[in-house]
Each structure stands twice: as C-alpha cells, then as structure tokens.
Amino acid sequence: MERHVKLSRFTRAGSAVTVGVLALTLAACNPDAAEPGTETSESAAAELTGEFAGAGASSQESAMAAWTATFGAQHPDVTINYAADGSGAGREAITAGTVAWAGSDRALKDEEITETAEYCGPDGAWSLPVYVSPIAVAFNLPGVETLNLTPDTVAKIFAGTIKTWNDPAIAADNPDATLPTTAVVPVHRSDDSGTTENFTDYLAATAPDVWTWEPDGVFPEDIGGESAGQSSGVIGVVESTEGAVTYVDASKVGAGIGTAAIKVGEEFVAYTPEAAAAAVDASPLAEGRHEHDLSYEIDRTTTASGAYPIVLVSYALVCSNYSDEATGTFVKEFVGYIASAEGQEVSASEAGSAPISSDLQGKVAAALEAITVG
Amino acid sequence: MTTTDSPPAPAAVRPRQRRSGDTERGFSRVFRWISTGAGALLLGVLAAVALFLIVRAFPAFTAGAEQLHDAGKVPGSFGSLLGYVGPLVFGTLLASVLALVVATPISVGIALFISHYAPRRLASIIGYVVDLLAAIPSVVFGLWGVYVFSGLVGDLWVWFADVLNLILGANVEASPTGRSLATASLVLAVMILPIITAVSREVFLQTPKLHEEAALALGATRWEMIRTAVLPFGRSGVISAAMLGLGRALGETMAVLMILSPGLSYSFQIFDSGRHTTIAANIASRFPEANGLAIDVLIATGLALFVITLAVNMLARWIVARRKEFSGAN
Questions:
Q1: CA distance from start to end of chain B
Q2: For site-directed labelling of A312, which of A299, B6, B52, B296 has its Cα 20 to 30 A away?
Q3: Residue B175 is nearest to which of A86, A218, A226, comparing CB atoms?
Q4: Are A98 and A53 in contact, with CB atoms under 8 Å apart?
C-alpha cells in the first residue's frame, strides 16, 4: 500500500513538471492524434518525460520488463515503474487512481468499472487485452512427445481419478502411442496464480461433470497432491519425475517434456501462438460494455478450427479519461506500443507470449485513440 | 556465576572514588546509557513487531466466514480463521519436531566426537566444517532439496511405505517425488545440525577436567566417563541448543517452500505430499498475490508463529532453569 502512495506522488510530481513543459511546447501539437509509427509519435517522443507507475498482474512481469526496456530506449526521459503485486492489487490501484495503468489477469467486472469512474472519467476504466499466453498441459513420459486428450480426460487427470498412463480413457484417443504403466502424478501451482484461474475455468467449462470446482486462482485444496510455487517450480517437478503432468505457461516447456493436444470440436489442437490468438478472436466480447472496452469472455468450449482455448489473457486496465494530460499521453503511447506488432513481438521473444492478432491490435489502437485527456 | 562476579566489584568502585576524574566518570555514564539503550531497543523492536502483528491481524479476527472466504482467500473448506490456522500450526510443529528428533542425537554425537574422541587436528577441521554448514543460505538448501535430495529419498519413502504396509498392514502413503514433510524435515534437520552441534560442543568442552579424571580413575571406560560426567554436566546446554535449533526450524521459510508440496490437513502421513505446510512457507507462497483482507489473514497466521516461537523459548528457559541445580557444574 505504502508503495503505491509513494509511486503516485512521483507520478504527480513528474506530471506537474511535464504539464509545465507541455504548456510551452504543445501549442501546435494535439496529443489526441498520437498514433504509433507516425510523425506525431516522434514529436510525442520528445515531449514524454516523467515517472509513471503501473501495478498488477505478475504474469505480465517479464513481458513488462522487456516492454519498459525497449520503450525506455525510445523515450529516454520516461521512467516506468511496474509493481507486480498481483492482479487484485492492480485493480485496486486503478480504482484508487494511484497508477497510470494496471495489469490484470481478468477484465474488470461491471461493478468494478462503476467504481473506477471517480478517477477514470464517466466511462470508467477499459480492459484491453495485451498479453496472451497459451497454457500447455505438459507431461514427463520418456518416448511420448504428444498425447491427444479430451477435456474430460484432462479434468480426470488433475482431479486424481486417472491413476496410470495406460488408462483406457487416455488409450482410446491415442491408439498409436505406447503408454507405460507409470503412475500419473498431477502437479499444480501452490501459489495464487492467473494460470490456475484460467486452467480451472477451462476445466469447469468443458468438463463440468468431472470438474465440479469453481474456477479460482488457488487450486482446490481438497484435491491435494503434488504442487510447487511458480511456473519454474511446477515444470521443475515434472522434469524430475517420470509420470508427472502439469499445466504451465507454454514458454516454460523445455526439451524432453511432452505436451498434450486438446480436443476442440472434432479435432485435437496442439498449442501454438497462432492457435492461442485464434481462441481469443473466436471469443465474444462481454456484453453491455462501452464499445472500446475489449473484455473477452474466452469461449472455452469453442469449436472453431485451430483454436487452442486454454489461454491466459492478461489485460491492461486504462482509464477512458485522464485528467492529467501527461499521464494520458503516456498511457496512449505506452499501451499503444505494447499492443503494437513491435511490442507483441518483443513479449513473444522475451516472455514467450502469443502475439495478439493484427485485427485485435487495431481494436486496441482504436480504443487508445478514443481516450480523452484533460 | 553471580558469586564469582561479586569480589571484584568493590575493587572497581575504589579507584573511581580515588581518581574522581570527570572524563572517566562521564564516559562510564555514557556507556551505561548506550548499553541500556541497546537493551531497551531490543524490547522496543519486539514490542513493535508484536503490536504490528496484532493490529494488522485484527481485521482477520473480526471478519465473518463469508468475508474470510471471499476477500481473505481462506479455502472454502475452512469456516473460521482458527480452522485455517490449525493445520498450519500442526504442520509447522510436526516438521520442526521431526527435524529436532533427527538432528539432536546426531548433533550430540558430533559434538562428543569433537570434544572427547577426535584427535585435536581432526576436531578443529570438523568443527570448521560444521560452522561452514551453518553459513549456507537456506535457499541453497532448498535448491539442493528440490533437485537432488527429494528425488533420492522419494524412492526410499516409497519403499519404506511399502514395507510398513506389508509388515504392519498400515496404510502409509508415499509420494514418488519426495516432496513430502519427511523430506522437508530431514533438510531442516541438516540446517539446524550446526547450531545444536556448535552449542553442545562448547558445553561439553567445559566439563570440569577433575570430574572426567575422577571418573576415569574409578575405572570407568570412556563411554562411562561421558555418561557419568560429561552428559549430566551438559544436559541443560544441550536442551537450550536444541531449543535454538527448534526456533530456527519453526521459522524456516525458503527451504520448506521449495521442497514441500503444500496441503492443509491434520495428517500424520509424513511421506505423502500435499498434506502439510508450515506457517512461514504458506505466508511466502500466498503473499505475492494477496491484497486487502488476504494479507491480514496471512499476518494473523504470522502472529500464531510469533506466539509459538515465544512459547518455545520460554519453555526452553524454564527447562534450563529447572535443570540447573542438577547439572554437574555445582
């Protein structure tokens, strides 16, 4: 809490300076027209100064480090602090107006948008998807590189009802694979994470008969079994244990670890960045929202061809109106950069995320343009 | 101890009267304040920590079951804060006590070897190695536990469980990954080994030579000498050493966090994973994504750990004080 207050003070101090600078230099330039890649962004680059704070999802942390580094190289006078305190903290911070933007592993709910109206203008804050990460079902079975699994089978594996790898349920979908009698050791995340929330959401939506637990960031306590902290922890256990299986950010899967192709509609789809982005595009937007609010309700039961629905979609929460001109300009520039083809490429190579489709990039850019400042 | 201190005291008073130097008296007074301040600071810090814990944990005490579940991230199966803290306290105590049970006899053995058996050269080398062990950071123990030790003992636990089940007809479950409380306790035992060894060694070395020689002169073997002279003399020292080790085991976070697959239950299935966790590891695991009441709940569990540690130390003091009169020192 203390940290946010401090950061916000910096933000204000920084913006006070910037406002003065802007008042002198901005006469000819309209910040609303700021568009990445055009001439205006060059002039905006010269204007952007100050310290800006963001907070929220730790899933975006490594991508954010890469984004702030490359963005900072283009705008040397800008200092960006992103506190990866968790999605909940990010949502609280944007509601309290202590940060310029926030990261969250889920979009804002209707009532949360209403709460943000105090600092974010009458339309409240918008949720813009900027970070899409496929979640792989990864297992350690020497000699088996891929397995076809139905949602029911995945749910049974993680609920602990499938005990061995040569179980008929697995064998039925993998007639060509030689399945060992090794015991199935499901490994889950022991900490509170967006990965778990999205994975359990997928299981609850696609295998409701088997997976009777509510989607949550904490894996159901009553299942028990193996667990470890962070993505590196769970994949570490899988790497060292034959027969172990986990769900993990696809970028963490290394050599020697097999991954499952998941049954979507009538086909089995392996995770790829394109398949993850396709699942987002195949999903509907939340209803009754502002036209620029891009809250996706990920359709886990999608039958769209080539879509991989076990994805984590992480959002940038931005205000629809910034009373402070410098902050508003910064958010437009920075989030615009994040959602651009270049920014998505950076996070794909540095954090292993799946780049959002160019269609979605355009929607995010349009939303950012619609942000009012002042 | 106090009786041996008292004779020099009048001697110290006399020169002060004679000299009546202002500088000497001035600095004495200043130093007195410095040391008093240091003592007071310690109490102040302790009080501040206790106050912080109580104040921040208070919202968790007063929150209803619904609130605890929604905002406090207490798992749905627990209706109250006490229900949540209970298994945590149980796991913490079980892990620490198991570690102590394993480490204490080995430590006493090492300490006796250093003080009474080993040649002087070897003794100093072993003493040095033991001290080195104490300097290894717990995160390194954690890494070692995760990547090396748990894999090794995992197979052992499975075999052990099979044997127990076969012979006793018991229902012992074991995890092949070795990410169980038994593994965590063994690593904790290794971590507290140097503390207990170092203190015990110092105590054993202080055994009065006359007692030892008297025992030997009466025809005692070396083991009998240790049993009749060294161990009774060192008993209270070993107990306080063990309590020091217990204190470290109770609060150990990183190694447990990395090695253990956590769970929340009152289970004695120490070879199975997903059954137990400790308070410190639970806080470290949950804190990064916690906010609002969830932090208060974690601080409330921290308060429980604080109380346990305090209780353990007071118990140790009480045991040592009670045993003092029986030790061979007098």
A1: 10
A2: B296
A3: A226
A4: yes
Tokens describing residue A317: 């929460």
Question: What would the pLDDT profile of B81-138 be if each residue is shown by its tens digit?
Answer: 888 999 999 999 999 999 999 999 999 999 999 999 999 999 999 989 998 988 999 9
| Contact (Cβ atoms closer than 8 angstroms) between residue A239 and residue A218 | no
- Least reliable range by pLDDT among A36-50, A79-93, A172-186: A36-50
Lowest mean pLDDT among A86-90, A258-262, B115-119: A86-90
Cα separation, A166 vs B259, whole angstroms: 29
The SS3 call for residue A321 is strand
Give the distance from residue A88's alpha carbon to the nearest chain B alpha carbon, in angstroms: 7
φ/ψ of A185, rounded to 5, equals -120, 95
- Cβ-contact A57, A86 below 8 angstroms: yes
Q: Which of A11, A26, A28, A35 is nearest to A368 (CA)?
A: A35
Distance CA B35, CA A343 (A): 59
A88 contacts B289? CB cut-off 8 A: yes
Query: Cβ neighbours of residue A327 under 8 Å, at least 6 residues apart?
Result: A11, A15, A52, A100
Ordered by start, the domain boundaries in chain B are 63-326
Identify the pLDDT of residue B324: 61
List residues bridging with A258 in a β-sheet: A139
Say if A229 is an interface residue toward chain B (CB within 8 Å).
yes
Handedness of CA B34, B37, B38, B39 (dihedral sign): positive
**Number of residues that this document lists for chain B:** 330
Please name the helix (run of DSSP H) or strand (run of DSSP E) that holds residue B24, with its range, or none.
Answer: helix B22-62
Give contacts of A59 with chain B, Cβ < 8 Å. Answer: none
The answer to pTM > 0.90 is: no
- A192 vs B contacts (CB less than 8 Å): 73, 286, 288-290
ipTM: 0.72
With tokens 């028990």, the residue in question is: A224
Tell me if residue A255 falls in helix, strand or coil.
Answer: coil
Q: Looking up tokens 């209706």, which residue turns up?
A: B79
Inter-chain CB proximity A226 and B275 less than 8 Å: no
Residues present in chain A in total: 374
Kind and range of the H or E run holding A79: strand A78-83
Is A102's pLDDT higher than 50?
yes
Amino acid B305 reads L
Q: What is the pLDDT of residues A301-339, one digit of tens each?
A: 888 888 899 999 999 999 998 988 888 889 999 999 999
**Cα angle value B211/B214/B215 (rounded, 5°):** 90
Count other C-beta atoms under 10 Å from residue B60's C-beta. 24
Option in A217, A227, A237 nearest B262 (CB): A227
Summarised one tens digit per residue, pLDDT across range B49-63 is 999 999 999 999 888
Whole-angstrom distance, CA of residue A336 vs CA of residue A320: 14
What is the distance between the alpha carbons of residues A194 and A215, in angstroms, rounded to a whole number?
Answer: 10
Q: Residue B174 and residue B158: Cα distance in Å, rounded?
A: 5
- For A213-248, letters b (16+ CB in 10 Å) and e give bebbbbbbbeebbbbbbbbebbbbbbbbbbbbbbbb
- B63-326 fold: MetI-like fold (1.10.3720)
Torsion-angle region of A182 (φ positive above 0: left; ψ -120 to 50: alpha; else: beta): beta
